[in-house]
Design brief:
Strand 5 and strand 6 (98-103) form a beta hairpin. By secondary structure, the chain is α/β, with parallel strands linked by helices. The protein has one domain (23-207): 3-Layer(aba) Sandwich (Rossmann fold), CATH 3.40.50.300. The protein has 8 helices and 9 strands.
Length: 217
Amino acid sequence: MSGSGSRSKTSSDLDAWLTAGHRPFVVVISGPSGVGKSSFVKQLLAAGLNLEYSVSATTRARRPHETDGRDYVFLSRDEFKRRIDAGEFVEWAEVHGELYGTLRTETERRLDAGKNVLLDIDVQGGRTVRKAYPDGVFIFVLPPTLASLEERLRGRGTDPDERIRLRLENARREIALVSEYDYAVVNDDLEEALEQVASIIVAESCRAKRRLPMLST
């Protein structure tokens, strides 16, 4: 009887492990300005991949159409620096005089809820996130050519020539660091590139190492 009870418990534990699903993980999307990351983020979130976007914190002023906590977590510069000193950021950087960062509470809350967390950050931020989440998935989005990237930047009609030249110089430096990422996807056709990124996320969800640890028998 005792042996039968032991086998029943083992079977129950195994069933629980099999149905538990994968351990959630962080997905980092990086790439040069103008490559189409915003479109990636928007459509990936709508693709049914168990993804939630981690809202960044910033010191820049809130724009009329933006909502605090949905678009950004808007903080004063003093509050942002206080949180830096308290170690509350997974990563942060100063961009064009304003501070931007990923709050650890934002990522951990989503991971604890069983959601994969999507981050749209630059290469510098990606390096820092890898230290915090070494089991994350890091995807670099590439333009088909630098000429096409320049065409996209100019097509926006929002930046002067000097700013476009600066963005292209930054793009060259960032692309040179693509080997630091797990995957590189060329955004020539948005739909095809999205399918590739979605396939990467699905495959990573199936990794054996992401299954919850097997319970002892």
